[in-house]
Write a structure and sequence with these properties.
The complex is a heterotrimer of chains A (about 240), B (about 230) and C (about 300).
Chain A (H helix, E strand, L loop, with lengths): L18 H5 L5 H43 L4 H13 L2 H8 L9 H25 L3 H9 L4 H31 L12 H8 L5 H29 L7
Helix pairs in contact in A: 2-5, 2-7, 2-9, 3-5, 4-5, 5-7, 6-7, 7-9, 8-9
Chain B lengths: L1 H8 L13 H33 L3 H13 L2 H12 L3 H25 L3 H9 L4 H34 L10 H4 L2 H34 L14
Chain C lengths: L1 H28 L9 E4 L4 H16 L4 E4 L5 H9 L5 E5 H8 L9 H14 L2 E3 L9 E6 H7 L15 E4 L10 H8 L4 E4 L5 H6 L5 E5 L11 E4 L11 E6 H7 L1 H13 L2 H12 L5 H11 L4
Parallel strand pairs in C: 1-2, 6-7, 6-8
Antiparallel strand pairs in C: 3-10, 4-10, 5-8, 5-9
The chains are: A mainly alpha (about 240), B mainly alpha (about 230), C alpha/beta (about 300).
């Protein structure tokens, strides 16, 4: 062990400027603006990235599964059973259960697999429900016009299923945004990182409120965006 | 993996680590905390949801409270409850209740509100009072959907109860997952397996109850989750 | 005529450019870190580690090294796994923690140097080197509010024996199963308090609110810098072991980075006395300043920034 001769110089650290933080009230705006760039914005960015990737992959998988189950009815029950099991496993457990799997480990891949799992049930159900809700007369008319199975799917069935699909995307996205706050449990950064940090710091309220508030705001923003998307994409339906 | 299973069979003990809380004890404790939360939430949420549905009022609130609920990250709600109310069972329960009420309200509202108006009118026409209409027509028909909301809330509360360990509350299965130092990697995995099994058991049991409560004519496998 | 002028002008420009380039090269080349392979430094998920990570990465950057800091990776176990997996090349670790949490050793080392050499041996077995340790050690300690300590005449841990189960001791859940924790305290001091699991991050909240009488804290906590508020109970038998900090670095990476790498980090660590780290912790934990800003101020004041 070394000790520098004469000891270190300890600067003042400008402690007088931090009275608000020391008092730990509901919210210190100064802390918020000072830490936006270094703490909150990176966390928000990571969180959005995690969410977008998870919902995109979940949507892709669920679409394939839903189209398969649409064609072969017997597939529905097993798919619902598996996705329901995945959905029911609490996030804290699912994240940990994925870590020992080779290829996943303590990485963003485990977090994504877990988040994708939570989207499957709702997206599968909604896409399938949407496809099934297409009126028989419309299908007959389209077939009568000579459309192939494939054309039918892409030009009639999927567009008419859009309201249900978008509704499913809406729920899935908001659910993922909420669950991604648990990701730091396995070392993956998200808006949960400042929340965990605040918990570990004698409950620094400003950070809790800022990060928690951002997660809620992000969820509400996504929710609203999907509502608008639904209205825009399906002008023929009257939104509630 | 096998080490995790052996850990479970040893009731959560780790050789050389001194006595650790029994897994069975932690599981029961988790169920108890969740149960209290759901119980109080039911007492609060069911009257509101059923009442609003019966009166066909407050649809905006009843439906959007479900949307708002989904945006609330459980960890943040727990941490904020602890920050403002302190650490303790009562405060964790407060957070659990806040998180359990919305899905119950939304489902109860949609269920009762959505009962076929013709049936309600017919019942009124037969001379039933408001209360009789509610008890003898609306509620039996709404039971599946109401119960689906309770099921959603119950699984959610069990999951959130385990998350409370991350917010500093001790005494649930989440403690095992949050304490790799004592339980080692295989113990954490074992704890995760227990949490998963617990949630799945709750889901399966409540699904069975829901099925039992559904009038035979309605047994269509309603999913029931609010859109 | 014009061609000659243009050529001369061009030639002059080129010469000037070359001179500037050489000048720039030599001043950049004088930094020991230039041209060395990039290094990834990690730190665990609490303030003191964040500060150490910031100190190391900034000090190395000032010497020209190419450093990426992966902040807040997670617990000790997760951070060690990241090191072994190669996701990070270096992180600051506590000698005692390396032995108990990572190596799984249950027998307490008898001195700080013994702890260090045992930890270094374990690290070496796995392909890692321990650089020189800090003067400060950040071990657990038992703290009580000064008023409580005065009322019950508490100066050392064995004084708690007379209070039996009436005294509530708060600590993280894992404290109850550790020999540098409750098990060792019970064995070596004969105390028998009522244990209350309290998450590490809530220690001072619990202590200040009276939720616990005695709380497990860390010797370098910023809160302890407030004179007269808390009393640390003496641990003459060293149940809490030795927890100096030393950077754990992949031996291969260390060889590639050259001698100035270790020398820089050793210089930083040599500055970290008890008082220094406590003041750094205070600025981060209590004033909520960012570890990066605090590290920068400290390094600048000591000529390493």
């Amino acid at each position: 062990m070394l000790i520098a001769a004469g000891g270190p110089v300890i600067p003042d650290f400008n402690t007088g400027a931090f009275a608000c933080e020391r008092a730990n009230p509901l919210f210190c705006f100064d802390w918020f603006s000072r830490n936006w760039g270094g703490v909150l914005w990176p966390a928000l960015r990571e969180h959005v990235l995690l969410t977008v990737v998870a919902v995109a992959i979940g949507f892709a998988i669920s679409s394939v599964l839903a189209i398969l189950a649409y064609r072969r009815r017997w597939l529905e029950r097993p798919i619902v059973a598996v996705t329901l099991v995945l959905y029911t496993i609490p996030s804290i457990a699912l994240f940990e259960l994925l870590v020992p799997i080779r290829g996943l480990g303590l990485s963003i891949r485990s977090a994504e697999v877990a988040l994708v799992s939570y989207t499957l049930l709702i997206l599968f159900r909604n896409i399938l429900t949407g496809l099934r809700a297409v009126p028989e007369e419309v299908l007959d008319a389209a077939r009568g016009m000579g459309m192939s199975s494939r054309q039918l799917l892409w030009r009639v069935e999927l567009p008419l299923a859009l309201p249900a699909i978008v509704a499913g995307l809406r729920i899935a996205t908001v659910t993922v945004i909420s669950l991604a706050t648990i990701a730091p449990l396995i070392g993956v950064q998200s808006l949960g990182t400042p929340i965990f940090a605040a918990i570990g710091n004698n409950l620094f309220k400003t950070e809790l409120i800022a990060a928690g508030g951002l997660a809620v705001a992000l969820g509400l923003f996504a929710d609203g965006a999907f509502v608008l998307a639904q209205r825009a994409l399906t002008p023929w339906t009257r939104a509630r | 993996m096998s080490a995790a299973l052996r850990f479970i069979l040893r009731d959560g003990q780790v050789p050389g680590a001194g006595p650790l809380p029994s897994l069975i004890h932690l599981t029961l404790s988790t169920l108890a905390v969740s149960g209290i939360g759901i119980g109080i939430a039911l007492v609060v949420a069911l009257p509101i949801g059923i009442g609003l549905g019966h009166l066909h009022r407050g649809s905006f609130i009843a439906i959007n409270i479900g949307n708002l609920w989904r945006s609330l990250p459980s960890l943040a709600v727990l941490a904020i409850a602890v920050a403002f109310l302190g650490l303790g069972l009562v405060n964790v329960e407060a957070a659990l209740i806040v998180l359990a009420v919305p899905p119950i309200v939304t489902n109860a509202y949609v269920a009762v509100d959505g009962v076929d108006r013709d049936l309600v009118d017919a019942a009124r026409g037969m001379g039933m009072t408001q209360w009789e209409v509610l008890a003898r027509v609306e509620l039996p028909l709404s039971l599946p959907l109401i119960f689906a909301g309770i099921r959603t809330a119950a699984v959610f509360v069990v999951a959130t109860t385990t998350i409370s360990a991350l917010a500093g509350y001790s005494g649930t299965l989440g403690d095992v997952i949050n304490n790799e130092t004592s339980y080692r990697t295989y113990g954490v995995l074992g704890g995760a397996i227990c949490v998963a099994l617990l949630a799945l058991t709750v889901e399966v049991v409540l699904a069975g109850v829901q099925r039992a409560l559904t009038p035979r004519g309605l047994l269509r496998g309603t999913s029931g989750r609010p859109l | 005529m014009r061609k000659v002028v243009v050529r001369t002008a061009l030639g002059g420009l080129l010469a000037a450019g070359a001179l500037v380039a050489v000048g720039v090269q030599s001043s950049v080349a004088s930094l020991p870190g230039t041209g060395k392979p990039a290094v990834v430094i990690g730190d665990k998920n609490f303030a003191e580690e964040n500060i150490l990570g910031a100190l190391y990465s900034q000090a190395l950057k000032a010497q020209g090294y190419s450093v990426t800091l992966k902040d807040n990776i997670g617990t000790s176990e997760i951070t060690w796994k990241a090191l072994v997996a190669g996701q990070i090349n270096l992180y600051p670790e506590y000698t005692g923690t390396l032995l108990s949490a990572i190596a799984g050793v249950t027998k307490n080392p008898t001195s700080a140097t013994a702890a260090y050499s045992q930890a270094a041996a374990y690290a070496a077995k796995h392909g890692f080197t321990l650089l020189k340790a800090t003067p400060f050690y950040d071990s657990d300690a038992l703290a009580a509010l000064a008023s409580y300590a005065k009322k019950n005449h508490l100066t050392k841990i064995s004084d708690l024996k007379k209070l039996g189960t009436k005294v509530t001791l708060g600590a993280a859940p894992e404290f109850a199963t550790r020999f540098e924790g409750l098990l060792g305290l019970k064995a070596d001091y004969g105390i028998n308090p009522t244990f209350k699991p309290i998450a590490i991050g809530l220690s001072y909240t619990a202590l200040d609110s009276g939720k616990v009488d005695v709380q497990d804290v860390f010797t370098t906590d910023g809160q302890l810098a407030t004179a007269g508020k808390y009393v640390i109970l003496a641990d003459p038998k060293h149940v809490f072991g030795y927890q100096n900090v030393a950077p754990v670095v992949s031996t291969k990476v260390l060889a590639k980075e050259g001698p100035a790498f270790a020398a820089t980090l050793n210089k930083v660590d040599a500055l970290l006395t008890f008082n220094a780290i406590q003041q750094l912790n205070k600025a981060v934990s209590i004033d909520q300043q960012t570890p990066a800003a605090v590290a920068a101020a400290f390094l600048k004041a000591n000529g390493l920034g």
